[in-house]
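Query structure, 229 tokens:
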């Protein structure tokens, strides 16, 4: 049985990924903050859990040992370089041939060729400004985290999520290399399906060194533009 590690396992996306990974038959190792261990109670007999800050290299080293895949939730919380610290700990400690899958949002651009609407750019700017003001979030650090991943020689995929909603699965999201593709216009994905995309990427070599921007496969823009590429 292949072993995979989920870094940020206790969050909403993380818990869905734990379930999908178990459903795929993977042996699952989770990493989450000490205070959040309780959120994984439903899985406690089926996964191995390491608790602590996800940007602690020693913790990550223990958790990813022997894992053929690592799924990492990158979040810009706090002003402590949490995203870049987490990404770096995974990049430095995962097995060299492991598949590394990271989550983030559409605001991350790999090659600058994404085309964003004015409202999207304004929203990111305001979130960054308010986040810095209240020392709550550090969007720039999530950008830094992804730049380090893009520059690494690991077998990475950075999955860029649209706006998210809860609800029953609609199927595997569709993706494009660039925001601005008409297929993505609906800008909505079910969180459960985002998680499925992350887990499926583990054995999809076509996604190595890609930064897919995803959208729900049942959204209007996905249906209207299906097969047009
Ligand atoms: N929300 C959206 O609309 C949206 C849109 C596009 C992309 N995304 C991406 O999707 C992924 C999951 O995002 P989500 O919004 O669905 O959240 P989520 O899955 O609930 O994940 C939040 C994560 O952040 C951790 N966290 C929360 N507060 C923290 C703090 N103060 N310090 C350190 N860690 C903290 C949580 O850990 P605990 O369980 O320990 O609290 C959890 O692992 C992220 O990569 C995000 O960039 C989200």
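Result returned for the query:
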């Amino acid at each position: 049985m292949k072993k995979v590690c989920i870094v940020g396992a206790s969050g909403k996306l993380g818990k869905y990924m734990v379930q999908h990974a178990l459903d795929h038959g993977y042996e699952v190792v989770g990493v989450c903050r000490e205070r959040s261990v309780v959120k994984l109670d439903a899985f406690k007999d089926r996964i191995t859990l390491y608790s602590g800050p996800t940007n602690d290299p020693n913790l990550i080293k223990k958790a990813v040992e022997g894992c053929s895949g690592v799924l990492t939730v990158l979040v810009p919380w706090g002003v402590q370089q949490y995203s870049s610290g987490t990404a770096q700990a995974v990049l430095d400690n995962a097995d060299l041939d492991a598949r590394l899958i990271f989550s983030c949002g559409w605001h991350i651009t790999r090659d600058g060729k994404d085309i964003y609407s004015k409202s999207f750019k304004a929203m990111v700017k305001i979130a960054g400004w308010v986040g810095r003001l209240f020392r709550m979030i550090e969007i720039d650090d999530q950008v830094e985290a992804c730049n380090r991943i893009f520059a690494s020689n690991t077998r990475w995929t950075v999955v860029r999520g649209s706006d998210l909603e809860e609800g029953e699965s609609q199927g595997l999201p569709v993706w494009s290399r660039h925001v601005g593709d008409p297929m993505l216009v609906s800008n909505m994905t079910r969180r459960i399906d985002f998680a499925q995309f992350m887990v499926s990427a583990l054995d999809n070599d076509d996604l190595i060194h890609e930064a897919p921007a995803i959208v729900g496969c049942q959204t209007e823009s996905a249906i209207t533009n299906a097969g047009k590429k």
